[in-house]
Amino acid sequence: MTQTPNLENQVEQFRASFTRIRDEMMKMIVGQKEIVEGVLVAFFAGGHVLLERRAGALGQNHARAHPRRSGWT
Q1: Tally of domains within the chain
Q2: Phi and psi torsions of 28, nearest 5°
Q3: What predicted TM-score, i.e. pTM, was given to this entire model?
């Protein structure tokens, strides 16, 4: 089984990438680890995710996040 070390290396690289992306997303989506992980799993599996939240809940976070993403701050 010469492919086993290569496969293990690929799995470890994926795990490290997944963790790094998850940690960055959780800086903006605080306290929603299961949701962030679910979104990432769907993304890497080539699926789709529909996120819904009660009205008005996103507005405050979006107002704070948007200037940083746009480079306005």
Answers
A1: 1
A2: -100, -30
A3: 0.60
Alpha helices in 1-73 (DSSP H): 3-28, 33-44, 59-70
Q: C-alpha angle with apex 46: 44 to 47, nearest 5 degrees?
A: 110
Higher pLDDT, 53 or 5: 5
Residues 48 and 59: their CA atoms lie apart, in Å, by 23
Which one, of 46, 37, 35, 39, lies nearest residue 15 by Cα?
37
| Residue ranges making up the domain that contains 38 | 3-70
Handedness of CA 40, 42, 48, 54 (dihedral sign): negative
Tokens representing 25 are: 């997303």
* pLDDT tens, position by position, 6-60: 999 999 999 999 999 999 999 988 888 999 999 999 998 998 888 877 665 555 5
